[in-house]
Amino acid sequence: MSALSGFVLVLLGFGFLIFVHELGHFLAAKWAGIRADGFAIGMGPCVASYRRGVGLCFGSADAKVVRLHGKRPIEMTDAERERHGLGETEYSLRALPLGGYVRMLGQEDGNPEATSDDARSFSKAPIPKRAVVILAGITANLALAIVLFLVAFLAGVRFPAATVGFVVPGSPAATARPADPSKPVGLQPGDEIVAIDGDETRTFVDLRVAAAMARPETELSIEVKRGSELLTYTAMPAREPRSGLLSIGVDPARSSALTDVRDSRADVARMLARLEGDGAAGGAWDRLGIGGGARITSVNGAAVSTYAELEQAARASGGAPMRMTWITESGAEAVTELAPRPEFQALRAAGTATVDAGLIGLAPLARVLEFAEGSLNTGALRAGDVFLRLGEGGGALEGPRVSQLMAYFRAHPGETIKALVLRDGGEAEVALQTDREGRVGIYLEGAWDLPRLAHTVDAVEAAGGSADSGDAGGAITSRDTPARALAAMPLGSVVSVDGEPVADFNELRARIVARAKAHAGDSPLALRIGLRDATPGATAHEVGATLAAEDLASLRTLGHAFPIPETFFDPQFTVLTANGNPLTAISMGFRQTVVMVEQVFLTIDRVARGSVGADQLQGPVGILHTGTKVADEGFMYIVFFLALISVNLAVVNLLPIPIADGGLFVFLMYEKFAGRPPSVGFQNAAALAGIALVACLFLFTFYNDLARLFGG
């Protein structure tokens, strides 16, 4: 019901924006003395109407006028209409609450031949007055945007703060170059982004938009506040595979409150259900009232309010269970106990853009964690299945890592793929279906509780250069991992480290990390790893591996992480507010409107340049869907969202498309300088081209919208 109410609110709001646009045209036409025969709220069949001399009636008042006087009011002269006691304008309510329209004498969108010789027709009005009428709709939308932004800023609107929470390994943010050579390469969790290319960054949305709208192959200058220092970094945005947009590779900093966004509630519930086996002291999570909206207030007696503090508590735990105090959504207090999860190395395979979790180049097999909504493979796979093989024959992929698995799916869109999985202690053959984007609708995790190996990462990328040479993070080198010397076969197992048996990856990690921390200095450390290949009945054998200084340094930093992933927590928020000052709110509203106009034009430019894919464009269905999700955040979010759409509506109407206001204005300027309007034939051809262009854009965005909604 909340989704339905949000949809209705956004639908009515969207219609209101179009209504305001048409109201601008209508009021300007009245001011210019142009005869406005009709003003409609909504589109489609007429439900009710009013015209002076006819009164309020169901259906169109014009139909009643035709029955009484034999012709429509627009076909009458002013004198004739006044003689019959009829008002100039029919005000009507239409069946579909999607905006409205103005019917002016001598002007019809898409029909250049609908002219009139009446002195009060649109075509007989002076060019300056016609220009005012044409631009009045755009002006009305921009003015409305300022007002809506003003209202939102007076009340205050929450947005994710422009604070770095997670830096994607190997991303532009991770390899960003500092202006000060004494500072470390890369952005760090906790960094506050204050400006990008000199433009103030007030929210994380500003940060993402600045990266997405960056000029292709152009570096960004990023100003960062780190503690009391103000630092400057340079990074080249890269296209993010998931969204197709340019990005620097950071996620927002998180709070200690579980997200309560409507679309994420089911995910939070499933995540908590998986953790129940780790022990919720006092009973199951749902009995304790812990779910979306619940907030962790302390860990082992120390107060916490951010996810960074939860991570610090997990690191300080040394692997011991953490006792956490929660405040549930109802305000009750609950206590749970959870063990932190061991950290593994982030292995970025040389020559790729993928990162896998593992240890010294050894990686676990991939396990099905859960299914995405609408997954095509809920009947073929089960949660807990571990992938042993993909494909058949010479093209089969044995023991795929998580990244290899996803790359294989993406390379086979819209196909049926045979797979072999480990299920309930045995092996099972399954047939998987990929969608048109090569997705299978599953979430994956490493099978850390097994000793079996996926493909090893034999070489990893490392940032070369130095900050003082000006190429810090820019020169990428590769180096062999210790796993290369092991020559481990996919689907084989690790059985020992220096003669001590290991049962799974977690024990393997514990043994290797303990040896790395006990080893003095950075001199190479030799290990003997016991392996057994996948052949039934094979005997184990030991292979030597050497840990270099880089390996030792990485292993020594491994600790323990908080067991609940940060994506399940709300971001840290900042509030955009005028603090109740109307003048400040007006200034903020005007500034935000100007910024949004710039961004819309910038988006068009970036689509033309190819740095923003055309598949990112949204039509009415996508706008309504997005608005429905926004509505879940509160009424002020709807107000802010409608202000954004109002700006977009104004800018799109300003484009020189023949049937848009911008196209009509171009024709008007031609008439001003040529002394005559374009020929009717040319206007007809231009109108048809404009209608075809708009129809194609509508169909394209409609397809995009449906693909997002039903294709994942």
Task: Provide an overview of this structure.
With 712 residues, the chain is α+β, with helices and mostly antiparallel strands. It folds into six domains: 2-34 and 112-156 and 581-711, no CATH class; 36-104, no CATH class; 160-252, Pdz3 Domain (Roll), CATH 2.30.42; 255-342, Pdz3 Domain (Roll), CATH 2.30.42; 365-446, PDZ domain (Pdz3 Domain, Roll), CATH 2.30.42.10; 459-558, Pdz3 Domain (Roll). The chain is 35% helix and 26% strand. The protein has a five-stranded antiparallel sheet with strand order 6-10-9-7-8, covered by helices on one side. A four-stranded antiparallel sheet has the order 16-15-17-18. Strands 24-23-25-26 form a four-stranded antiparallel sheet, with helices on one face. Strand 15 and strand 16 (302-303) form a beta hairpin. The chain is elongated.
Low-confidence stretches: 278-283, 464-474
Helix content: 25-40%
Coarse structural class? alpha+beta
Mean pLDDT: 84
Largest sheet: number of strands, sense, barrel closure: 5 strands, antiparallel
Strand tally is: 36
Whole-number radius of gyration?
A: 32 Å
Terminal Cα span: 23 Å
Strand arrangement, largest sheet? 6-10-9-7-8
Supply the number of helical segments.
17
Task: Please state roughly what percent of the residues sit in beta strands, choosing from under 5%, 5-15%, 15-25%, 25-35%, 35-45% or over 45%.
Answer: 25-35%
Shape: elongated
The tally of structural domains comes to 6
